[in-house]
Structures are given as C-alpha cells and as structure tokens.
Specification:
54% of the residues lie in helices and 10% in strands. The chain is an alpha/beta fold. α6 (109-116) links the parallel β3 (99-102) and β4 (121-124). InterPro entries: Bact_metal-bind_prot9, ZnuA-like.
Length: 215
C-alpha cells in the first residue's frame, strides 16, 4: 500500500473517530448552558437536578424532559474539574437538589463531597460500571458507563417523582434508541480501527478508543 493510501486511510479513521468523539461528548444545548431557576423548579413541581459537569447534565436533561430542571456546576471546558474550587453558591445547589449526578473516579471529588452531605439521590456515573479512583476518569466517552448511568438516573427520577414513572421510562427508551444508533456507528468504525495504534497528548478519549478497539 502506498504512503498516500496509508495517509488517506489514517485521515479517514481520524475523521471518523473525531465525529464519534463529538457525538459521545455532546448533548442538548439547553443542558450545556448551565442555566436554571431552582426556585422555579420547586414551585412548578419539577425535579431539581444538579450535575457536576455538563456532559452528565445533558444526559440528565434528556432523560427527564419537561419534568426536570437541570443545573450544571461546570460549563467551561477550559477548567479542569479535578482542580475546580466550588463556590458557596455551587454547594448550595446540591443542597436543594433531589437528584445529583457526578462523574466520580476522582474526577470531581468536590461534587461527590457536596452531594453526600445532602438528601439528594446521588448517581455516580463511574461507579455504575465499576470504575474507581485511579482508572481513567473521562467516563462519558464509555458506552457502558453512559448506558448504566442513564438507567441509574432514570431510577432516581422514578424514585423522586413516581407519578411520572411511565414518562421517565419512555424517555429512557428513547434515549437508548439514540445511543444504539451511536453504538452502531462505533461498531461500524471499529471494523476499520481494530488493533490500530493511536497516540494522544491527553487521556481524554481513552474509553472511546477502547470501544473502537484501538491499541
């Protein structure tokens, strides 16, 4: 195979991986804004939800629809979650929430600490797939973690708001249908990327590369 053919193949694979990376990382634009009105949520009967990072806030919003009000603590991608210093207002948001969604795996320890001191039902995404401190913490790129965390969030909603249990089940089914489409694309791409080596300056995409069977 020529150098040019190898280069084209590498570029095609890189483009495919980049597309999947974007799809896995992105969620609804509303959740990513980080805006919410907790007092409005309480008065309207919506479940108050707080997420440490917008990747999980997006999932939480998709699974709750109009029955939830999601607040994201971190919305800026240029700030490291591990080093983030929450404000008193940030901590207070955990105190009023009925459901808290954190990443775990020591990625956002401040969020775990804040949530554990409240009555909120805590969903720790990493723990849903047995990922612990010391493992790669960028778990929103893992298909298994996304799926498990989504089910845990739905269960938390049904516990907090049993009158809309069927609604949450329906939204969960719809979410998984979209996730299945993403998984199909990942499997399709993995046929081309299996056992291919990759290099990265950061470990952010490790879980996605693993799903793509890259080495």
């Amino acid at each position: 195979m020529s150098i040019m053919s190898n280069a084209k193949r590498a570029l095609a694979i890189a483009a495919a991986a980049a597309t999947l990376l974007s799809m896995a990382a992105c969620g609804s634009s509303n959740a990513a804004s980080g805006k919410s009105d907790s007092s409005g949520a309480a008065s309207s009967g919506k479940i108050e939800v707080v997420a440490s990072i917008n990747q999980w806030g997006s999932v939480a919003e998709d699974l709750g629809g109009s029955n939830v009000e999601v607040t994201n603590i971190m919305t800026k991608t240029n700030v490291e979650a591990h080093d983030y210093e929450p404000t008193s207002q940030d901590v207070a948001k955990f105190g009023t929430a009925k459901v808290a969604v954190v990443n775990g795996a020591d990625y956002d320890p401040w969020a775990t600490k804040a949530a554990q001191s409240t009555k909120a039902t805590l969903v720790t995404a990493a723990e849903t797939a047995g990922i612990k401190e010391g493992d790669n913490p960028h778990v929103w790129f893992s298909a298994k973690v996304r799926s498990n965390a989504a089910d845990a969030i739905t269960a938390a909603y049904q516990k907090a708001d049993p009158s809309h249990k069927d609604d949450y089940a329906k939204l969960n089914k719809e979410w998984h249908a979209k996730e299945d489409q993403l998984e199909s694309k990942i499997k399709e791409t993995s046929a081309k990327t299996e056992n291919l080596p990759y290099a990265a300056t950061e470990s952010v995409a490790w879980h996605l590369a693993d799903d793509l069977k890259m080495t």
